[in-house]
Amino acid sequence: METIKKYQKENLTVIWKPQKCIHSGVCVKTLPRVYDPKSTPWIKSENASVEALKSQIDACPSGALSYTETNDDN
Length: 74
Prior knowledge:
Layout: E1 5-9, E2 12-16, H1 26-30, H2 50-58, E3 65-69
Antiparallel strand pairs: 1-2, 2-3
């Protein structure tokens, strides 16, 4: 069964699939205050803006990181 972890930041849900991760380090190098492999939880989405998170996640080479957005205009 695939493990999926989710982290919330305002209307953005960061999704991490550890089995897909190739440990390229792009996330840690881009946003070290968000991604800290030595910390638990290792993703602290509150340490970056939604736009910075989306930009970094879009650069994830393995697709282990993705996101969904919810519209608060309901």
